[in-house]
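# step 3/5: fold
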Amino acid sequence: MAGVDMDPEVALGLFEEGATLVLLGVPEGTELGLDYKSWGVGPRFRGVKMIPPGIHFLHYSSVNSKSCGGEVGPRKGLFLSLKPRELVLAHWDKQEEDLDFSATENLEEVARVRAGLRELDPYLGPYPYDTLRKWVSLTDKLNQEVAQALQPLSGRVCAFSDVIPELQLTHTKDRAQQNLPRNDTECQNMKEGLDRLPKMKQREGTELRFSEIPKHMYPPGATPAQITQCSMDFSYALNCLLESHYKDQPLNVLGELQFAFVCFLIGNVYEAFEHWKSLLALLCKSEDAIKDRKDLYLGLISVLYHQLGEVPPDFYVDIVSQNNFLTSTLQDFFQFACAPGVDATLRKRAEKFKAHLTKKFRWDFDADLEDCAPVVVELPEGVTLD
């Protein structure tokens, strides 16, 4: 880990007041990072010092031995909420290829490590303060409560899902009852083989616990007219989500939007990107909510400003711009946010943000998009539009 040039007095203050991660036994070559930066672990590495208090994302990828080609494993990570002068202690578990933080609960061991911090200092890499501003801009709405609620029960955010078969079929007789082949030669082609593979499910406790976006965008017993209205204005569904998950603090939904974005951008979790898209669409297409929830949408503009400013350029080409998702979603938002009846401060902020995106990315939010087709609505059973 490379050092950070800073004033000696500032460095001393950060050493005294900043939090410290002591990570013992991490194999040389492991890719390890904190927040927006990552490094290759060297032989002297024992952790990270001078960490500013607040939310942080520790992430790492184990590396196989050279005899196995030195391949890098999937990225794992966890969100930590650190206090001033806090010391968090972890040991590397060789069998699990993961960090074990149970040592932090051993008060005697933590006290012993704390007493020897001065001697340990040369082996601790400094927090990368050159990226702190970026990190804060991506997580300023995310607090410990929200991060803890969204993080898997296993405590790890994993780039690849840990999946197991839905049915544990250990005997040939069991497989035959499920129409599964006893060997590869029974499949006539690849499609048949794929169709006959056992169905998989994510291992319990490893899934991200995102808020559930309502499957029905309209209230029970809705009339056809109400269904059509709710299919154009998602405010009902948004209010249901906020009532279910963020009743007392609706602005925390922006923390979830940031959590999902970080999990995708830094944690490499594609599922998190899909949730980010769904949650963003729900927020941007809620016309009445935009009129009623000024603070929420002022915050949304700030969140999106920083998120869209930090992603790699090819991100838009390869992922976000598929099917005009981002431009069409933001087009709806600007149409609603810049309309009469919206709070003047929010309207001006939205107009300024629209001009910024138009200039920076050359997106035209005033053009007719191909996606603006008639909405197909789902009717309750037995209801017709006759």
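# step 4/5: annotate
The chain has three domains: 8-139, 163-202, 224-361.
# step 5/5: archive (pending)
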